[in-house]
């Protein structure tokens, strides 16, 4: 399953999101969801400990001026790669 986080992790129940992540899942942060990738944020430890592969949209990171503060645990990708993830996963959950 592809989980996409578009809202700030402070606006949703991020613990619920993290609890639903499985080994075969991909997690993608975009729009304001990219805040979850910030180093030293309160959610980072738990999301990194999940078994899902972690992606983050680089255009959204750069648009917010936070590219120097993103954890190396996230793979920066473009919107083109986002399309590839949607093709890979028939099931998707938007948060």
Automatic annotation (TrEMBL):
Its main location: cytoplasm. Keywords: Cytoplasm, tRNA processing. It is found in: Cytoplasm. InterPro entries: DsrEFH-like (IPR027396), Sulphur_relay_TusB (IPR023526), Sulphur_relay_TusB/DsrH (IPR007215). GO terms for biological process: tRNA wobble position uridine thiolation. GO terms for cellular component: sulfurtransferase complex. Part of a sulfur-relay system required for 2-thiolation of 5-methylaminomethyl-2-thiouridine (mnm(5)s(2)U) at tRNA wobble positions. Belongs to the DsrH/TusB family. Heterohexamer, formed by a dimer of trimers. The hexameric TusBCD complex contains 2 copies each of TusB, TusC and TusD. The TusBCD complex interacts with TusE. This is Protein TusB. It comes from Buchnera aphidicola str. USDA (Myzus persicae). The lineage of its organism: Bacteria, Pseudomonadati, Pseudomonadota, Gammaproteobacteria, Enterobacterales.
